[in-house]
Amino acid sequence: MRKTKAKKHILLPDPKFNDQEVTRFVNMLMLDGKKNVAFKIFYEAIDVVAEKTKENGLEVWKKALSNVTPQVEVRSRRVGGATFQIPTEIRADRKNSVAIKWLIGYARKRNEKSMGQKLAAEIIAASKEEGAAFKKKEDVHKMAEANKAFSHFRF
Q1: Residue-wise over 103-116: b if at least 16 C-beta within 10 A, else e?
Q2: Which range (79-83, 123-127, 140-144) has the least confidence?
Q3: What value does the mean pLDDT take over residues 28-57?
């Protein structure tokens, strides 16, 4: 166990939209410390989303993120030699973190030309409650529902 709780890092809001959540997303999107490249990819994706949906790109991105955000997850717990999948509520900061990771991870696996286009396509799909990231959330919720009987083993 830790002696003290780790301090929360204060993120600066991004330059274009002045939003801390965008910065958090870009930080997870970034590879090898290339933050400017990550910002360019994100802004390109938002522009593509705005162009295709004829709506505000940032609002569509926020909607997509909220559609992908899980409410419960299953965690493994050993009880008397058997391992059970126990459904647990997720903390708010972890919910966002998991949703962002899923959105970026499944965007990277898509088949469009550039990362900006991949991310845009995944954001549009998630905002319509489709796509791989949304399916992952649904699968996690189904798993939690199926293992509801073990919820009395909670941590």
Answers
A1: bbebbeebeeeebb
A2: 79-83
A3: 94
DSSP string, the chain: --SSPPPPPPPPPPTTT--HHHHHHHHHH--TT-HHHHHHHHHHHHHHHHHHHSS-HHHHHHHHHHHH--SEEEEEEEETTEEEEEEEE--HHHHHHHHHHHHHHHHHTS-SSSHHHHHHHHHHHHHTT-HHHHHHHHHHHHHHHHTGGGGGG--
pTM, whole model, 2 decimals? 0.90
Domains and CATH numbers, the chain: 21-26+34-153 (1.10.455.10)
- To which residue do tokens 């073990």 refer? 150
User: For residue 38, what pLDDT band results from cuts at 50, 70 and 90?
Assistant: very high
Task: Give dist(CA 118, CA 101) in Å, integer.
Answer: 14
Tokens encoding 68: 């992908």
Question: How many residues comprise the chain?
Answer: 155
pLDDT band of 155, cuts 50, 70, 90: low
